[in-house]
Amino acid sequence: MQLDRRFALFCGWSDDDKMIIVEKDDLGVSGQLRMDERLAFVKMLRNIASGRIKAVIVANISRFFRRKWNDEAEKFMQICDTYGVKVIIPNAQRTAIKSVYDFSKSSDIQQFRRECEEAWKYLENHVYGTMLAAQDVLGQIGRWGGWNLPPGYIVDRREKIDGELNPNYRLYIPYQPHAEILDRLHDRYWELNFNTMALLREIARREYLFPAFEPWVDKEFHTKLCLTRVLDDRGKIKGYTITSDHGLRSVLSNVMSIGYCMWKGELVSTENHEAIIDYNKFAMSYNHISATRLDGTPNEWVLGRRSSYAKKHNPAYAAILDGKLQASDPGYRINQCPKLMKQKERPTKIERYYGFFKRRRSEGFASKYMILSNDVDRIFLDHFIMRLQQADEFENFLDAEKAELQTQAQMLLDLDVQIDAARKALALKKAYLKSGKIKNLDLLEELDADYTIQQEDLARMERQRERISSSKTPAQQRRSYKQMMREAGTCWNEVVIPDELPLMIEAFVDTIVIEPLSPHFYAMRIQWSDPEWGIDELTCYRDGSPSIRWTTEELDILRDRYEKSPMEELFQLLPRRNYVSQQRQAEVLGLRRQYQFCPRHLPKAFCLQDWEIMQQCGVTEEELLISKGGRLVTLALPMDASFSNSNWSQVRSGRRAAN
Questions:
Q1: Residue 491 has what DSSP assignment?
Q2: Which of the listed residues 71, 161, 402, 426 has the most CB atoms within 10 Å of its CB?
Q3: Do 425 and 454 meet the contact criterion of CB atoms below 8 Å apart?
Q4: Which pTM was predicted?
Q5: Is the N-terminal amide bond of 575 cis, ω within 30° of 0?
Q6: What is the DSSP pairing of strand 509-518 with strand 325-327?
Q7: What percent of the chain shows pLDDT beyond 70?
Q8: Longest Cα separation, the chain
Q9: Which long-range contacts (CB under 8 A, 24 or more apart) does 15-21 make?
């Protein structure tokens, strides 16, 4: 399976992709998984069932199975016996065949079982019993056992010095280039008043925080430092950095920096190795991060601060698109987040928003761009229902259904092959137990446990088969929903219960991409699962105050030009700021114009970016302000389903430039 084709050619097979099939999808996948959990194994079983494969070459039996019970091995042998497939094992040098397993022979069956048992015993005895046990001993005595290194340290790998045993063998020793940077990191944390996010933003502005190790440092340590690696154009490490607040907190609160040694959450030594950070300096950082102090007592200050940030949950409204939305910029993610809205003489209200967040938290928000989730869901739902009720044609239904039925049939065939093999394996085991040849009670108990495991696995596969065979294909589900919605008409909300809406969306929607166009407008791009629908693009209006933070460049422009420049020019220089926001910010900065009115031909509540989109869409300021809430402005459909995100953004940019 995972060998290159040279051994197969050496054995006499012709150099043909149809004759020699090389599967590499199982590389790095554990042999402890079931066959149906391994992609390459599933492909191989399909080829065996179709008669395409009659011989399987594998480097070692341990690459097939490393399971405590031989349930998967028993099924595999039954499948190979049913379809006349042999398993070939090469020697270590790949120069000859070591063994060939023919599962029509009882001797080969017994030998294969023993090989699988040996693979598990190696894992159980050598890996779990010896290697991991040895690592545990090293961890308990404060020595390095091959795991990741804390920043600021390397390990003394010299077993002997001048012929004498090295007492510091496998002990952590300071690496000064990194230790000095770590010390400065603690200083800067104090200077920033222990503001983790401010420190993280400073780190993000640097190409890397820690430089690459010097050439004399053991090569093994280059990939063991528990930080994010920064690579050059050739793929070599040029430095290390920290990309998350969790990572920064872990580095700043790592007690290894003061000579302590922790193993599996327990303190094993307070004088294990040389400290690289002053104790008092480290304690200041630690006590602002950890819920416990260095002496093990609760840190009331941190615990009190955490309790004040308890998450508030409002189950009154569930966002139906939560988890379905994607940002057009891959550097951002869209999460649902609540926001407290204080109201005069009324109880505090919780509004739910879809917020744009940087995937790297150190880079903050996407200009605080948040959209009411109720508005987004309503706009989508209205359009979705319209689509369902107008779906009168089903020309391509059979094509989609045929492809999905083929996939479903293949899944059922894969299960049938394994179910048949499991039943045969159980029948043989049952007959062997009934023969009365087994007298040893310990062996009987072991066989009973093995039989129970295989029974449970067979029941699991039968349930899975029943679920697949009885369920509709996605194409069939979509057609049922179309017919139901068309018949329900305007009374659809009486027919569809709220709990069924997410199921309908899951059946019809692949992705929904949101792209902010301006402070008050955004585009919603819906890629439907239904091939008849393709892709729809909606331009939507976002009500309320955008609350976009002023940048340093915008503030500089306002200081230099606000008092003297015409308002038309200010609109051009500050395209994301409307007349009202410019006026308010100018008051904060102590600026005043000679004429404080806005020209009639310019909007007051909208900026230049908004105004350009309003002109393209043919809507006026009065139309948008006459009622509250977000709404659909324009709709473009259908688009070519092969239209990519990048093309979509390019066309949009070109459309803006043309206008």
A1: G
A2: 71
A3: yes
A4: 0.55
A5: no
A6: parallel
A7: 77
A8: 108
A9: 21/47, 21/52, 21/53
| Phi, psi values for residue 501, rounded to 5° | -60, -50
- For the chain, the first-to-last Cα distance in angstroms comes to 58
Backbone φ and ψ for 611, nearest 5 degrees, come out as: -60, -40
Rounded to 10 degrees, the C-alpha dihedral 612/614/616/620 comes to -130
Tokens 């803006």 correspond to 656
Domain boundaries, given as residue ranges, for the chain: 6-136, 154-307, 521-658
The pLDDT value recorded for residue 648 is 32
Task: For residues 17 and 25, give the distance between their C-alpha atoms in angstroms, rounded to a whole number.
Answer: 16
- Residue 486 in 3-state DSSP? helix
Three-class SS string for 113-134?
HHHHHHHHHHHHHHHHHHHHHH
Strands 521-528 and 172-174: unpaired
Question: Residue 225 has what DSSP assignment?
Answer: B
Half-sphere exposure (Cβ direction) of 94: Cα atoms closer than 13 Å: 12
523 and 515 Cβ atoms separated by less than 8 Å: yes
The whole-angstrom separation of Cα 173 and Cα 143 is 11
The tokens describing 489, both together, are: 């008409």
Two tokens at 361? 């938290």
List, for the chain, all residue ranges whose pLDDT scores fall below the cut of 70.
Answer: 1-4, 18, 24-32, 63, 66, 68-69, 123-134, 306-318, 339-350, 359-368, 391-405, 436-439, 441-443, 471-479, 481-498, 595-598, 636-659
- State in words which class domain 6-136 has: alpha beta
Residues 6+ apart with CB under 8 A from 576: 518, 519, 548, 554, 607, 608, 609
CA distance 523 to 516: 6
Can you give the pLDDT at residue 649? 39
Helices and strands, counts by H and E, the chain: 22, 20
Q: Nearest to residue 252, comparing CAs of 177, 310, 307, 197?
A: 197
Q: Which CATH class is domain 154-307?
A: alpha beta
Q: Which of 514, 509, 488 lies closest to 330, judged by CA?
A: 514
- Would you say how long the chain is, in residues? 659
**Measured distance CA(80)–CA(55) in Å, rounded:** 9
Distance CA(17)–CA(8), nearest Å, equals 12
Antiparallel, parallel or unpaired: β 228-231 and 509-518:
unpaired
d(CA 380, CA 374): 10
- Both tokens assigned to 244: 């998350």
pLDDT of residue 525: 93
Tokens encoding 534: 């393709």
